[in-house]
Design a protein that fits this description.
- 14% of the residues lie in helices and 21% in strands.
- With 133 residues, it is α+β, with helices and mostly antiparallel strands.
- The protein has one domain: Beta-grasp domain (Ubiquitin-like (UB roll), Roll), CATH 3.10.20.
- It is built from three helices and seven strands; from the N terminus they run E-E-E-E-H-E-H-H-E-E.
- This is 2Fe-2S ferredoxin.
Length: 133
């Protein structure tokens, strides 16, 4: 889904099928949260927000963010699509410490509170574990 100057367009279409952008249109970055049961929540994001803020502001189920973004609770655990792992980057030291205690950790696990959204993340997909810590 893309928001362009107040309009919402479906960006799940392949690039070849997407409508072209009119001059002056503002296209927002969209991230997909995929729940453990396969439901997808496509959410427009703004650069500079944390991915946890994006999820909680848009009522994405499965992201709690109990500590408010301090990497202290692990309730915003996401698993980054491996194709996006390099683009998103590795966890920091504090984040790594929290992830090490998570039994559902996977190689591309991150705490969404520590992921600052970038415009180059358009199309990013993250999977949510069945349970948060």
């Amino acid at each position: 889904m893309t928001i362009a100057t107040g309009r919402i367009r479906d960006k799940s279409l392949s690039k070849a099928l997407r409508p072209t952008t009119a001059p002056g249109e503002l296209i927002m970055t969209v991230v997909r949260f995929v729940s453990h049961d396969g439901k997808t929540h496509a959410v427009p994001v703004e650069e500079g927000q944390s991915l946890m803020q994006v999820a909680t502001n848009n009522a994405v189920p499965g992201i709690d963010g109990d500590c408010g973004g301090e990497a202290a609770c692990g309730t915003c655990h996401v698993i980054v699509d491996p194709q996006w792992s390099e683009c998103v980057g590795p966890p920091g030291a504090d984040e790594e410490e929290m992830l090490a205690m998570n039994p559902e950790r996977e190689p591309t696990s991150r705490l969404s509170c520590q992921m600052v959204v970038s415009d180059v993340w358009d199309g990013l997909s993250v999977r949510l574990p069945e349970f948060q810590m």
